[in-house]
Amino acid sequence: RVISRAAYATLSSRVVDLLATGPAATKLLAEHLGLSRKLAVMILEKMDQSGITYRDGDRRILKT
Fold this sequence. Notes:
3 helices
C-alpha cells in the first residue's frame, strides 16, 4: 500500500505524541490512529526503518 507523504507525516506525528508518554502496544497505536492493525503496522515499520521508533515484542518505543 502507498500513502502520501503528508498522511505519513501526520500519522507519524501522532504516534510520536503518544509514545512520548511511554511504550505502547501495536493494537493501542492502531486504535489511536483510527487504522486497521495491518495498516498501522505498515506505518510503524516505516518509522522503525527511519529510526524514529523501535520494536520490542508487540510494543513500539520512541528512540531518544
